[in-house]
Amino acid sequence: MTFEVIKPGLLTTIQDLGRPGYFHLGIPEGGAMDREAMRIANMLVGNPEDAAGLEAVFMGPELKFNDDALVAIGGAEMPVFVDGEERKCWTSFPVKAGQTLKFGFLKTGARIYIAINGGIDTPPALGSRSTYPIGALGGFEGRALAAGDTVPVGKATAGAKERTLDQALLAKLPKPVELRVLPGLYWHRLTEGSQKQFFADEWKVAPEADRMGYRFRGGNPMEFVERDQPFGAGSDPSNIVDGCYSYGSIQIPGGTEPIVLHRDAVSGGGYFTIGAIISADMDLIGQLQPNTPVKFKQVDMAAALDARHVRSARLDKIRSALN
Amino acid sequence: MKTRYSYGGDEHIFVEMDEEMSLDAFFKSLAMSNAAREANIDGVREICPANASFQVRYDPEVIAPEDMMAKLKELEKIAINAEKRLETRIIEVPVFYQDPWTHECVMRFRERHQDPSGTDLDYAARINGYDSVDAFIEAHHSAPWFVSMVGFVSGLPFLYQLVEREKQIEVPKYLKPRTDTPKQTVGYGGCFSCVYSVRGAGGYQMFGITPMTIFDADQKVSYLKDFMVFFKPGDIVKWKPIDREEYDRILKAVEDGTYKPRIAEVTFDLEDFNGDMEGTNAKLMEALNDV
Questions:
Q1: A29 vs chain B: nearest CA distance in angstroms?
Q2: Are A91 and A143 spatial neighbours (Cβ–Cβ below 8 Å)?
Q3: How confident is the model at residue B46 (pLDDT cuts 50, 70, 90)?
Q4: Complex ipTM value
Q5: Is the pLDDT assigned to residue B54 strictly greater than 80?
Q6: Residues 71..90 of B with a Cβ closer than 8 Å to A: which?
C-alpha cells in the first residue's frame, strides 16, 4: 500500500529507532527524537516497536491514503483529522483508501509521530530507514518528505485492532522543565563559579534547535580555568583537540550558548563538552519548543541509572496495557 | 602523556590520551580502541577512535559503568606495549587551491573571520610566518598527512601533518562557524587539515577543493562500491596541487566512473618516522610514485 504527500508540513521525515554502529565514521545513530512516542505509536497499530513511521516537527503533514490503513499518532498534542473529522492522539484509528489525514495547530510539545500498520517500507540504508539528510541516507531518497511523494507502506499485519493508550501511563513533562545532567568530559575546564552558575541559571531553548542539537540561551557566559591551549586545539579556551562527542553531551562554543547534541549529532569536533544529559531525558528534549524555559539539574550516575529503570518500567507497563 | 577517563552521561566512557595532539597520542588511542574491540566486552555498543582520544558507547543494563571503566583501564596496560606500526595505504588526493567555489564562500562569510580584509589563505600564510600564499600552499602539500580521525559528518577525515612540530601549520577555527561549506573543501583548523565530505556547516579555514568524492551514500562512485566512506584512520594522504583544467578532467572522470585514485600499500612505523621524518616520508612518496 502507499500514501501520498499532499503537504509535507514544516519538516516531516521517515524515522525508526536509528542506525547504531556508524558513529565512528561520522554517521549518527539518528532515528526518532522522541523514541518513546515512536515506540508507543507503533504498538498502537500492532507494529514492531522499531518499525519506521513519520516524525513531523511543529506542523503536521497532509497525507492522502491510497489504501485502507490503521494509523496512530503519538508525541506532541496536535488535533488530528480524517477527512475533516476529528480523531484522538494515542489511539489507533482506521483511514480508508482515498481519505486524507490532516492536523490542526500544535498545542504542546514539538514533534508528532505517525505510525501506520505495516510500517513505512522505503529501502533501509545501513540497517535503518531513518532519514539523515546531511548524508543523503535513508528516508525517502535521503531527504525530508515533499509534496507529491508516494510513500510505500509494508504489508499490514493481520488482526491489528484499534487500541487506546491510558494517558496516565505516559511520562509527565516536568514543569518547569528540568534536564538532568551528569557532569564529566571537559567539566574541569570550567571555573567552580561557572560550574555552579550553569545549574543556577535559567536557560531558554533557542530557535536553533533541530535533530542535530538543541541550543540554549539566556544564562551567563562561562569562565574557563586558565591554561596554555594544548597543541592542535586552536586558540579559543573552548577549543580542544578534536575528539568524539557523546550523544546528549553539552558543548559550549565560545563559552556562551550550550548545545545539547541529539540524534543527528556530529560525531566529533573541536569544542569542549561539560558532561551529558542522562539518557532517560533525551526523548524529552525532542518535545521542547523554542523559548521554553529550562533548568539543568546536576545528578550522579546512580540517579541516571535509576531514571533509566523508571523509564523502562514505564514502557513495560505500556507494553502490557496495549497487548 | 597523561590518560584521563571520564563518563559521558550514562552510556559513554571517554578516554583522552593527552590534552595535546601528537602521533604518539594517536597510536596509543588506536591501540587502546583496538584492544577494546578485541576484548569483546559484553554490552559494548560502539567504539569511536579519535585523534588523541576515543569513546566507548555501552549499555549500562548489561555492564555497570564502573565495571566498564575498570575494564578499559586494564586495557591501557596492553596498549602501552602495542606495536606502533600500521599496514596502511598512501593516497594521492588532487587539490585545486584558490578555487572559485571556496573563494566565493570565503567572501560570503567574511564577517565571521578573524581577518575580514583578506582571504583564509592570506591569513593562514601570515600567521604561520610565510612570505606568500604560494609558499604556504607549497608547505601544505609538500609533505604527506596522516588520517588521525574520521568523523564529524559522513566520513570526513581529519589529517595530521607528517613534519616536525615546529613546521606544523596551526590556524584557529572561524570566530563563528559558517552555515555553508562547499562539498569537498579542503579545510584547516587547529593542527588538522580536513576534507568536507558533504556540503554543510563548518568552522575550518578554507584553502581549496578536491574533485575526488570521498562519501557517496548511493555508492555509484567506482572506488566506493565496497563502502560509502573512503577514508580510514591510519590512511596517509599526499595532496597534489592541480589547476582548473585538471580539476574539470578529474571531476568528469569521477562522474563517469573511470577515475582511479592513486593508491599504494605501505607500512608506517612510528619509531622509524620519529627517528627520520624526511627519510620515512621519502619512502612513502617512493611507494606512491611507483604506482
A1: 11
A2: no
A3: very high
A4: 0.96
A5: yes
A6: none
